[in-house]
Amino acid sequence: MRNKNSRIPYILAALLFMASIFYSLPYYVSKPGLAKELEPIITVENGYEEEGSFMLTTVRMGRANIYTYLLAKFGKYQEIYSVDEVLGKGESEKEYNTKQMHMMEGSKSSAIEAAYKKAGIPVEYRYKGVYIMGIAPGMPAEGKLETGDMLLKADGKRLQSRDQLLNYLNSKTAGNEVTLTFSRKGKEKNVSLQLESFKDDPNKAGIGIYLVDDIDIIVKPKVKVKTDEIGGPSAGLMFALEIYNQLTEDDLTKGYKIAGTGTLSEGIVGPIGGIEQKIVAADKAGAEIFFAPNEEGAKDSNYRAALKTGKDIKTKMKIVPVDSFDEAVDYLEKLKPKKRKR
User: Fold this and answer.
1) Catalytic member of 53, 110, 234, 301
2) Domain spanning 124-216: which CATH class is it, in words?
3) pLDDT over threshold 90, residue 38
């Protein structure tokens, strides 16, 4: 009997530990992810090889349980966010992940555009449709349309842009009906929705959808970018550097391991979240140079936060501020080649 009773505390402890793992809290935890070499991920047809490497840095984020919450609470370079800070109002995790994956697609397109134009190679565009990035709760689209749907027509008329659809909807009033043709998982469908007034602006009516244009970029030589389950827009700068390096004969890496982060839009580098965690990830991966968004020298810029983190972890990485893709290329072109060990 004593032996059986003596096991009870251990059984309870095991049950509590299991519960701490599987019971989700209303929080998310982010922590340093990985720094991945981009050469295996990006392939330019007949592209040039490189001696060093460009690296994509990531942040790992997941729903918190008791165990991960406590680790983040008392650990370093881990952040805790409430559900409301991560998900939009009425947004599901599936919708959030879909949005992140689409942002990654936009990041690829911006990078391809910047790299090919820098290399003096023509770029063509093919319009695919209007992509739904989110659904407003309580509005007509809820339950009828989903994040990730591609809108193709409005009342039978082929859509040419997001603005065209918005202008068409703005021309209508509450009570009017619109029939939308959309694609979901490769299947075309139709849905008729009656416009309603917005609660925060009763003078305007709509169906409650957040939209972006979905455009394919067509280039020669062809380029493939395999990102698997990586989401978000922060890889734009590093994608562009890797693509451009494969397009041009001179190797920009000069034998160095080069990491970095930053969104890219029309060649301009924008700020991202989790810069501190990305510095930690790059340092662990042995990066020697790190490009950080400078935000035109703002006091609270990603670059300044990266410097602070670098000093704290005593990194040997050279942290370089950039405001544009051209600046990053100029820096690398002037960089002295790394001396080879003999």
Assistant:
1) 234
2) mainly beta
3) yes
Numbered ranges of CATH 2.30.42.10 in the chain: 124-216
Enter the tokens of residue 59.
């942040």
| Inter-residue contact 178 to 169 (CB < 8 Å) | yes
What is the predicted pLDDT for the residue at 340? 67
Q: Assess whether 314 carries a catalytic annotation.
A: no
Domain spanning 33-88+106-122+220-334: CATH 3.40.50.800? no
Is residue 342 pLDDT above 80, yes or no?
no
278 is catalytic: yes
Q: Which segments of the chain belong to CATH 3.30.230.10?
A: 33-88+106-122+220-334
- pTM attached to this predicted model: 0.83
Cβ neighbours for 86, distance < 8 A, ≥ 6 positions apart: 28, 61, 96
Q: Which one of the listed residues 278, 299, 314, 316 is annotated catalytic?
A: 278
pLDDT at 1: 45
Q: List the Cα angle 257/259/261 in 5-degree steps.
A: 170
Give the percent of the chain with pLDDT over 70: 92
